[in-house]
Design brief:
heterotrimer; A alpha/beta; B mainly alpha; C mainly alpha; A: alpha/beta; Rossmann fold; 6-stranded mixed sheet; 9 helices
Chain lengths: 241, 473, 473
């Protein structure tokens, strides 16, 4: 569903992606771990068509976002680290707006259903978003993704800043989506959450996928050790005292 | 999709109290300026009517005097104004509305209000409803446009919106439509009320013409604002920050509204200056005295005229003529000075044309110059309307000059000069009548600027289309 | 504080966009100064040409007279050098006021005082100064230093100061800044001062250079210092306003919009509102009323012309004609000249009333100018460039005094039709205008500096209050 083939991207002298190969199958939750500047967000931007790769290609349901950005975006949903919305609109109005941008028109009750499914309390649905907490905005972002009914979901640090309960609810939601055969690519620093929801985990350093593993059977301590080893090995000079 | 985005944009802007307040202020400013314009228009009309009546009465009551001195006492005429002048006073403060028609000289505008009224030289010329609509409406259009996309880019909304798969051009088009509606909300009622007021105050029989002119005027303003809005959104599409977008938009506004009109005046003065009246009269005087194109100067012509008149009446001395030679001489003198003047005036018209071309060139860079020209033309307050009035007044002046010379020819004998005309002679001079031309005439003179405005609009749309071809989040 | 100055100056000058912006301001200032210099040069050339032509004409007449008296020449029907009605009656002598000290600052064409009047024995009140120029060129006013300093420099300062603190808040660096030991108020003050110095230096330097180059020794240091003080007060007000707005603004877009709103209010709307209010409180001279009064007086005198002539000679029996003269001379001397004197006596109060109205308007504008620092600076600039109505009134009083002496010199021979002598030519009164009294002139300038200081003090108080409590969030 989502695949990167020898994806290469440079920003001036800095190489953000070094021939990245990656595949996320239908129903799979793939967690991309890595330090800051590893290329996780660039990878997501390539799938979204926000960044045009210098080499290789990203494919979303067989469509290349560099050639057909709208076609690729139709097939996926996206939740950024900070879900910023129109403050003067309520959660429901924001959802209706973004859903329409995605080509879906829903009735008021259906919109409420998505918001509730995303975990937003009913009494907040019609309040202006300017009064929402970060977690509440994140839930509207999830509702937008749900309403889009996409076959792939891209998540960029989705649980950053969420409280443990909200993070848990989020994990539950990802599992439900996975069960509906939605392919999920999640860039994150959160080892615990990756282990909690992902089927497969990739570790990226310096634009390269250093290691890829099945999440089953891994412990948090074990994953952390492999992560540290991978990142230290890839950047010894940076890690030296 | 465009409609949906436009509706949301409209709703968003309406919930933002700042816009409501700005719109309300703009609406009030346009209405207040139009109301003030109404009073000024009404006062000017009353002044003009009083002036015309008084000046006519003074012409009749001037007492017995020599017909040529009566021609020097002259007549005063005043240019009628369309009621749209309350919205767009155009050149009124800088041209005046009266002309003194005196023997020998082509009339030129004098008694110019801005030379007497210091308040007309104090600001940046935003005292009329039309100027506020164009300048402040333009500023609002540019700033609204400049913030339209970049704010979403800064907040991350753009990222989320694009990820939904919306086509960037459709999204930007929706923004354009929504913001155009937002702009129209305060400005359309203001413009509509101004137009209604102008139609209400229109002279009998001219209402249809006023409405047609008014609609064209508003269409030009609409094109201006739409072009600026699209240009603003195009800036917003490429700007990385709202700060940068605003600075670029304000820079554009300063260039289009403040610098360009002055640049036009400076270029005109540098490359196609009109002669001063003294220079014009000196050139005409020289041609009059010395002749041109094989035609002899006045002194030689006078000698020939004397010989020809003596021959025609079969006498040898001017004193023996059965008619007044003074009248014949004055008539001939006026005919020759008219011929000379027509030649100089044709040159002057060439200079005006060159000036208009320079302004047209500046309007390529500034749609405001074009929109203001169209507005003034439709309100009947541009230089073309003033010049047409000048030409009609000149034709009238020549007519009554001829009447005075004929009177002199009939009243004196031989080479005598002194004789007096009386009230019945003055009454024989018909009062000056002038009709402002119709909308078609005005449109023909402003078609170039109207075309430029349309081109600006298309160019701004094209810039927006290019800027949003691959919209970056 | 010194290191902070250096750091902030370096930061400012290295910021992208600052150098181009200052370069554009410099270029516009130079262009404005160049236009002012061009106008000055053209006006001086026109005056020099008129003075030279006048001197040559009188020298020619004197030579003719010498030749006539020596029997070396014969007198024609026209152009006699010894008949006063032909030699001097309508010969307009160019009268020039004392030069303005800073004329280069303004290129205003519609200044109420033309720096050249051609005055003869006849009335000066019929001189209307008509123009052939397309008034569209005067619509926006000239592009001169007055325009740059008054309207553009505040805009440039706005571009440079709108984000002195707001940008740090926006980028999240305000907290870091505030935690380094200096208050945000001190940092903002230094940043504003750096920007003030940059803009003031650019515009001020160009103005000083232009004054020194064009006025060549005539530019008075006090006048130049007064103008620079006015510029500093105006720019200082904008810096203080930028400080006050930045103290609260959460981001640079809001700060720029707030400052832009203040610019619109004080530079665009306030002058329009002030103009309307001043127009109501101190209406401009009633020019059309003046024209009607002029024609009424003329007609009345024409109807009573025999009576007027009789009254003139009854009051001045020594001026009774000593010879008959032809019908032209008879008319000009015994009819037109007495009527001219009677006309001037009757019209003088009307003209004085119009001049008083101009002065009243100027005073009212000065009173209202604290509401718009740009308007106050414009009035100050125009005053120093020679455009104050008070200067006109003073000049016209000198012109009238000279005309009385001129008439006194030639009247006995004109009215009595005695022939002029060479001595009459050699002892002609000279026009020696008095410079305006320093107290009156500096009273106006100090009042305008006060009008500029008042908004500065208010803005400083606001900025002080706001910046004292300005925080990083």
């Amino acid at each position: 569903m989502l695949s990167a083939e020898r994806l290469h991207k440079r920003y001036g002298a800095h190489t953000a992606l070094h021939g990245l190969d990656l595949t996320v199958r239908p129903g799979e939750v793939y967690a991309l771990l890595g330090p800051n500047g590893a290329g996780k967000t660039t990878t997501i931007n390539c799938f979204l068509g926000f960044v045009r790769p210098d080499g290789g290609r990203a494919l979303v349901d067989g469509r290349d976002p560099a050639l057909d950005p709208q076609g690729a975006r139709q097939a996926l949903a996206y939740i950024p680290e900070q879900v910023n919305l129109y403050g003067w609109f309520s959660g429901r109005e924001n959802l209706a707006y973004f859903a329409e941008l995605g080509g879906h028109r829903y009735r008021k009750a259906e919109l409420g259903g998505f918001l509730t499914e995303a975990g937003l309390e009913a009494d907040a649905h019609d309040r202006p978003v300017s009064g929402y907490s970060k977690g509440m905005r994140q839930k509207v972002g999830i509702a937008i993704a749900l309403a889009k009914d996409a076959r792939a979901l891209l998540l960029d640090e989705p649980t950053s800043g969420l409280d443990p309960r909200a993070s848990h609810e989020f994990s539950e939601l990802l599992r439900r989506l996975s069960a509906r055969k939605v392919s999920i690519l999640m860039a994150t620093h959160d080892i615990f959450r990756a282990l909690d929801v992902a089927n497969r985990i990739g570790i990226m350093v310096g634009g390269r996928l250093i290691e890829e593993m099945d999440a089953g059977g891994l412990s948090a301590a074990g994953l952390e050790a492999r992560y540290l080893n991978a990142t230290l090995a890839a950047a010894p000079a940076e890690a030296a005292p | 999709m465009i409609g949906s985005v436009a509706r949301r944009e409209l709703a968003l802007q309406l919930r933002d109290g700042r816009l409501l307040m700005t719109g309300a202020v703009l609406l009030l400013a346009v209405l207040a300026a139009t109301a003030a314009g109404w009073f000024q228009f009404d006062r000017a009309r009353a002044e003009r009517e009083h002036f015309i009546a008084e000046a006519r009465q003074q012409w009749l009551d001037q007492g017995a005097r020599h017909p040529h001195r009566a021609a020097h006492f002259g007549a005063y005429v005043a240019m009628p104004q369309l009621s749209l002048a309350m919205f767009e006073p155009g050149l009124r403060p800088f041209a005046g509305q009266t002309l003194w028609l005196e023997a020998h000289d082509r009339p030129a505008f004098a008694n110019i209000p801005s030379e007497d009224d210091l308040t007309l030289q104090t600001g940046l010329g935003v005292a009329s409803g039309s100027a506020i609509l164009q300048m402040l409406g333009g500023l609002l259009a540019l700033t609204l446009g400049a913030l339209a996309i970049v704010r979403d880019r800064e907040s991350g909304v753009l990222r989320l919106a694009l990820a939904q798969g919306v086509r960037p051009r459709a999204w930007a088009g929706g923004k354009l439509l929504g913001l155009a509606t937002v702009l129209a909300l305060p400005l359309a009622p203001a413009a509509g009320l101004a137009l209604a007021a102008a139609a209400f105050a229109a002279a009998p029989g001219t209402r249809f013409d006023i409405l047609a002119r008014g609609l064209l005027l508003l269409a030009a303003d609409g094109l201006l604002l739409l072009a600026l809005l699209a240009a603003g959104i195009a800036i917003s599409a490429v700007a990385r920050s709202s700060r940068g977008a605003l600075v670029a938009a304000l820079g554009l506004w300063v260039g289009v509204f403040v610098l360009a009109p002055r640049a036009a005046a400076t270029l005109v003065e540098r490359f196609a200056p009109a002669p001063t009246l003294q220079v014009y009269q000196k050139a005409a005087g020289q041609a009059f005295d010395e002749g041109y194109g094989g035609k002899p100067g006045y002194a030689a012509q006078l000698k020939a005229l004397e010989a020809e008149t003596l021959r025609r009446y079969g006498v040898t001395r001017l004193d023996d003529l059965p008619v007044g030679f003074s009248g014949i001489r004055m008539r001939h003198m006026d005919a020759w000075s008219t011929e000379v003047d027509d030649r100089e005036y044709a040159r002057l018209l060439g200079i005006y044309e060159a000036q208009a071309r320079i302004r047209m060139g500046v309007a390529v860079a500034s749609p405001f110059v074009a929109a203001r020209s169209v507005a003034q033309g439709m309100a009947g307050m541009d230089w073309a309307h003033h010049r047409r009035f000048l030409e009609a007044a000149e034709a009238y002046r020549r007519g009554f000059g001829l009447q005075m010379n004929t009177l002199l020819e009939r009243r004196v004998r031989g080479s005598r000069w002194e004789t007096d005309g009386d009230r019945s002679d003055w009454a024989a001079v018909a009062p000056f009548r002038y009709e402002t031309p119709g909308v078609g005439w005005a449109l023909a003179r402003q078609a170039g600027f109207l075309g430029l405005l349309a081109a600006w609009c298309l160019a701004a749309f094209a810039a927006l289309a290019i800027a949003t071809r691959r919209l970056r989040p | 504080m010194r290191p902070l100055w250096r750091q902030e100056a370096r930061l400012f000058l290295r910021a992208p966009g600052v150098a181009p912006l200052l370069a554009v301001l410099f270029a516009l200032s130079v262009l404005g100064a160049w236009n002012g210099a061009q106008r000055l040069e053209a006006e001086r050339a026109r005056i020099a040409e008129a003075v030279a032509a006048d001197q040559a004409a009188f020298a020619r007449k004197r030579d003719q007279l010498v030749a006539l008296e020596a029997g070396r020449a014969q007198e024609g029907q026209f152009g006699s050098a010894r008949k006063a009605h032909q030699a001097v009656m309508s010969a307009g002598r160019p009268l020039v006021p004392p030069p303005a000290e800073l004329g280069v600052l303004s290129a205003a064409e519609a200044r109420p005082t033309p720096d050249l009047l051609a005055v003869s024995l006849l009335t000066r009140h019929r001189d209307q100064q008509p123009t052939l120029d397309d008034p569209t060129n005067r619509l926006d006013g000239p592009f001169d230093l007055s325009f740059v300093a008054t309207w553009l420099a505040p805009l440039f300062l706005l571009f440079l100061t709108y984000d002195v603190l707001a940008r740090d808040r926006e980028q999240g660096s305000a907290g870091l800044l505030a935690s380094q030991g200096r208050t945000l108020a001190a940092i903002a003050a230094v940043r504003l001062a750096v920007r003030f110095v940059a803009v003031f230096a650019v515009v001020g330097a160009v103005a000083v250079a232009a004054a020194v180059v064009t006025e060549a020794g005539r530019a008075s240091l006090p006048a130049l210092l007064a103008w620079l003080a006015g510029l500093a007060l105006c720019l200082g007000t904008w810096c203080a306003l930028a400080g006050a707005v930045n103290a609260r603004a959460r981001n640079s877009a809001s700060a720029s919009l707030a400052l832009l709103s203040i610019w619109i209010a004080t530079c665009l709307l306030a002058p329009a509102v002030i103009s309307a209010a001043v127009g109501a409180v101190a209406p401009p001279p009633d020019r059309l009323g003046g024209v009607l009064a002029m024609r009424e007086i003329e007609s009345g005198l024409n109807r009573r012309r025999a009576e007027v002539t009789a009254a003139y000679y009854a009051a001045r029996p020594q001026n009774r004609p000593v010879r008959q003269g032809d019908e032209y001379e008879h008319y000009f001397v015994t009819e037109m000249f007495p009527r001219t004197l009677a006309f001037d006596a009757a019209f003088a109060p009307v003209a004085a009333g119009m001049d008083r109205a101009r002065v009243r308007q100027a005073e009212a504008l000065r009173w209202a100018s604290p509401a718009s620092p740009s308007l106050a600076l414009k009035l100050l600039t125009e005053d120093l460039a020679g455009g104050a109505p008070e200067r006109r009134v003073r000049y016209l009083a000198d012109v009238d005094a000279w005309q009385a002496r001129w008439r006194g010199h030639f009247e006995p021979k004109l009215a009595s039709m005695r022939f002029l002598t060479v001595e009459d030519y050699d002892r002609m009164p000279r026009f020696e205008p008095r410079p305006e009294a320093a107290a009156a002139r500096w009273g106006r300038i100090v009042a305008l500096l006060g009008a500029l200081a008042l908004p500065l003090l208010l803005a400083l108080a606001w900025a002080w209050r706001a910046l004292r409590s300005a925080g990083p969030l």
